[in-house]
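[job 0412] stage=complex_fold ligand=S-adenosylmethionine status=START
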Amino acid sequence: MKIDIVSVFPEYFEVLNLSLLGKAQEKGLVEVTAHNLRDWTHDVHHSVDDTPVGGGAGMVMKPEVWSECLDELLHLEPTTVTCDSTADADDTASADAAEPAESATEIAANADTVPATDRPVLIFPNPSAPLFTQQDATELSHANHLLFGCGRYEGYDARIPQYYRAQGVDVREYSIGDYVLNGGEVAVSVMLEAITRLLPGFMGNAASIVEESYTGENALLEHRQYTKPADWRGIKVPDVLLSGDHAKVDRFRRDEALAKTNKLRPDLIEALDCSKLDKADRKTLMALGWEVSGTHPRQR
Ligand code: SAM
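[job 0412] stage=complex_fold status=DONE, emitting structure tokens
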């Protein structure tokens, strides 16, 4: 997977040389290049921002600098597009030469079956965009080329994603949570780690990404984990985990996952497909106050 990151602080991404992502780069699984957006400026101050049109506090990242950079990295020629700047921010903008961008929802629905694609995906972190989820990470792990653009200041000119969508580029904007960071660098690191750990060969033990929180079609929060010693400072691990009875251990963990998800993320329980639940799952959910006779569980 080729990963380009554009930022005014490219040094920030030296951290990606550490740990498993560093090893993945050494193994040639991923190739990460951090670019300095200021390399595409032409003025003595290397300025990438300007005052907001319409007034207001702060500065906004200029489209001209971004487009010179992105055109080069995406191998596109500059052009003029016909876009409605009042259209929904995440609408696929129209242009004469534009291929309609593939629907993110469509791809996400088939995340596990999406073949690797050479079509680059341009991603802008943005606190006012849809939340980045494990499903997005899974889907993006099938792309061969990801290009991230890190916003700073009050953010980037809204026409940048609109223009590249109109050019037929698969453009995504994602928030990593309901809070505001100073820049997109942290958000890109978060997304990158979530995406690259799903690449075949990335994890030492591939099984460790199969049964995790938010993962799979009937996603739950994961059960609690313990290691040795069995008795630590007076707190014992549950006896069943020491029983050696794998079926009982699995059931205990599954019930724990269901109970924990019920308490912390009932929205995930509501999204479960009842036809994929076994008899014991149904019994546990009913004991937790859910009706499981329909397509999805409903709170009683
Ligand atoms: N004025 C923007 C707003 O109120 O929505 C906030 C801009 S923020 C200070 C600057 C940049 O940080 C954004 O353009 C984005 O790239 C990044 N950023 C900040 N918070 C983020 C979040 N929760 N998720 C993703 N990116 C974020």
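Residues 91-113 have pLDDT under 50 and may be disordered.
[job 0412] exit 0
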